[in-house]
Specification:
globular; 34% helix; 172 residues; alpha+beta; 5 helices; four-stranded antiparallel β-sheet; four-stranded mixed β-sheet
Length: 172
């Protein structure tokens, strides 16, 4: 059993397609990812064990998901979306994607090929936004193959319409 240090869902109920359209939310879904934070963490640990950075990258939001859902929806609930010129949103995407990729490559270098058993997830902050909920700085409490406790700190997770994906692997 995995203990969570936070309440998984229910902060924002995900609107259906008609309600999303009326609210100006793009009709987009998070592709792939996982149905819960623990399933996302398990998939990430499996990618680490397989030393498969491509599998880990598929657990993170795509450029399309970031630029159409995450970035514009990153405002307080009830506020209008954050609209910016394509050049600016592309800049923010590239900055996020590059930082996240380098962090992931470092983690693969340090922990790739090692098997961890997930014992729990501790999320530092759950923050509702207009279009999604962010689960900030999750810490994966794991056990090494030799039974030693260990913690892996990641970036943030997005929760949208019952799906969870990493926004970034980088954590400050």
């Amino acid at each position: 059993m995995i203990a969570l240090a936070w309440c998984a869902s229910g902060l924002i109920s995900a609107p259906g397609p008609a309600a999303r359209s009326k609210a100006g939310i793009p009709d987009i879904e998070l592709s792939g990812g996982a149905s819960s934070p623990e399933a996302l963490a398990q998939a990430f640990l499996a990618a680490l064990a397989a030393n498969d950075s491509k599998a880990a990258q598929r657990l993170a939001v795509s450029e399309d998901e970031y630029r159409k859902l995450i970035m514009p929806g990153s405002v307080k609930p009830g506020r209008p979306p954050q609209i910016m010129p394509d050049t600016k949103s592309e800049y923010f995407w590239r900055k996020l994607a590059t930082t996240s990729l380098y962090t992931l490559k470092g983690m693969m270098g340090d922990y790739g090929g090692k098997k961890f058993t997930l014992k729990g997830i501790e999320v530092q902050k759950v923050e509702p936004f207009a279009w999604y909920t962010a689960h900030r700085d999750p810490v994966l409490h794991v056990e090494t193959e030799s039974g030693e406790p260990f913690s892996l700190r990641l970036g943030s997770m997005a929760e949208y319409h019952g799906r969870f994906k990493f926004i970034s692997f980088w954590s400050d």
